[in-house]
Design goal:
With about 500 residues, the chain is mostly beta strands. The chain contains four helices and 24 strands.
């Protein structure tokens, strides 16, 4: 019985498959991979720069990839991590150019480059020698330019953040995609990137500009086309100030002499629309206002706002956005006191009346000092109708201690002044009050000696305002026009 002869296609397939299996086994279980890795890295390392540490690589049909590439300053001022540098190659060029890795390259793609700038209060770091970020970027960008046929570098899913103290990360730019385009016969590249701003899910930015390594400077325009910020943003720094909605858009120019934080400079306006926040649960809204960036400072132009059922005006500045400290002021008027109970239960008996006043916010975000002064011409507190009420206070967001510097309240002719503290960490309150009532002429028909006299009451008391358990002492004295009539002293 005659056997059917197999075609040469079958034998070619068997040989090819066998070679592939043999190649995989040799690549995986022999030192060949390490030797090839050493050859390729030694050839390409001068193009990537000596500052980069390459951890691994792989070879595909049309690309060579380097993984977990990293450069960092030993003084912890920055770190640059590249998840992958993908070098597109055409192995058919080996017949024309010989086995020269650089001669096979057709494209370069950097996947997930991530730059972290470290904020530190240790100014001595500025004088220490180390690897500069400028040097790292120049090595990568300008050396890749030496590859034949490479006129641009593609960026995929890039990012930049600011590493704050206490290991908190503040994202500046994320999900960056685009190209770095080389200019012929120069050390200048053009930026054209799109991505997200401040880590906000609903945001879109366009970054366009140039980097000139010869003049050691870079200039770019950041077009903020859309950015929705609210308190779901995981990097919002305040627990007492919740953003419900803020739509940002604008154009900011960014320039720098180097790549250091101190040399970065900003200029431009950001429009904020449909602004809605809760400050200690007090609802504040504004249709729009402007944020102005000038070098390192962020200026909040004065704007009118709605504060619950009243009106307000807000203004302020952050002198250095990289070392943020607030210097803000809020003025309010015609706000119903009934909304105070939304801030804390200590105000639960404030039923009726309007208030006006001002508040200032100063200091680091985590340790803000708040000072305020409030006035209410008519206040119904519990069942007492006060008039001409004034409170001057100071509060620290870190200690949560409220210092009542000056309390003044009047109930008809009964005037009270005092001071005290409220500790919101321990729920303890302590007050020292001095009260006096001037007795009108012919007011009493029986206690005639009190007419045109006065009654004073000194009170010190404290306790837990949650359990409502209080104790203290009082000293009550009644005077005629020229002498003390009676005195009562004791605890309660």
């Amino acid at each position: 019985m005659a056997h059917k002869h197999r075609s040469w296609h079958f034998y070619l397939l068997v040989v090819t498959f066998s070679v592939m299996i043999l190649g995989y086994l040799l690549w995986t279980f022999t030192p060949i991979k390490n030797e090839v890795r050493a050859i390729i890295i030694s050839e390409l390392q001068p193009y990537l720069g000596e500052s980069l540490l390459i951890n691994d690589f792989s070879i595909g049909w049309n690309s060579v990839s380097f993984y977990r590439v990293r450069a960092a300053d030993e003084n912890n001022t920055f770190s640059l991590d590249l998840e992958e540098i993908r070098v597109g190659v055409n192995f058919l060029k080996v017949f024309r150019n010989g086995f020269s890795p650089t001669g096979l390259i057709e494209s370069v793609t950097v996947v997930k480059p991530h730059l972290s700038l470290y904020y530190t209060e240790d100014t001595r770091l500025k004088t220490r020698e180390g690897v500069s970020l400028e040097k790292v970027f120049e090595e990568i960008i300008t050396n890749i330019q030496k590859f034949p046929e490479i006129d641009s570098v593609e960026i995929q899913d890039g990012g930049m953040d600011l590493q704050m103290i206490e290991n908190r990360r503040f994202p500046l730019l994320s999900d960056l995609d685009g190209r770095l385009k080389y200019r012929a016969n120069s050390k200048i590249i053009d930026l054209n990137l799109e991505g997200r701003f401040l880590g906000a899910d609903s945001s879109m930015i366009h970054l366009a500009g140039e980097v000139d390594f010869t003049k050691k400077k870079w200039l770019a325009d950041l077009y903020l086309e859309e950015c929705l910020i609210n308190s779901n943003w995981p990097f919002w720094p305040f627990d007492f100030w919740q953003i419900e909605n803020a739509n940002l858009h604008g154009n900011v120019q960014v320039n720098s002499r180097t790549f250091s934080l101190d040399s970065l400079s900003f200029a431009g306006d950001i429009q904020v629309n449909d602004f809605s926040v809760y400050l200690y649960n007090q609802h504040i809204t504004a249709p729009h206002f402007v944020l102005n960036l000038d070098r390192h400072s962020l200026n909040i132009a004065p704007f009118d706002c709605q504060v619950e059922d009243g009106r307000g005006t807000f203004r302020g500045v952050i002198a250095d956005i990289f070392r943020p400290e607030a210097d803000w002021r809020l003025d309010v008027r015609d706000v119903s006191v009934k909304y105070l109970k939304q801030s804390h239960s200590i105000f639960e008996y404030a039923y009726e009346g309007k208030m006006k006043g001002w508040g200032t916010f100063k200091g680091p975000f985590k340790n803000l000092d708040i000072e305020a002064e409030m006035h209410s011409p008519d206040l119904l507190y519990a069942v007492v109708p006060f008039n001409r009420d004034t409170v001057r206070l100071a509060y620290n967001t870190s200690t949560k201690l409220l210092n009542l510097k000056d309390i003044r309240a009047s109930f008809f002719e009964f005037r009270t002044e005092g001071y005290g503290t409220v500790d919101f960490k321990t729920n303890l309150i302590n007050l020292n009050l001095e009260s006096v009532v001037e007795v009108p002429e012919r007011y009493f028909s029986i206690l005639n000696d009190l007419n045109q006299g006065k009654v004073t009451l000194s009170t010190t008391f404290g306790g837990n305002f949650i359990t409502k358990k209080f104790s203290g002492n009082f000293d009550c004295q009644a005077y005629s026009q020229d002498s003390l009539l009676v005195r009562a002293v004791g605890p309660y």
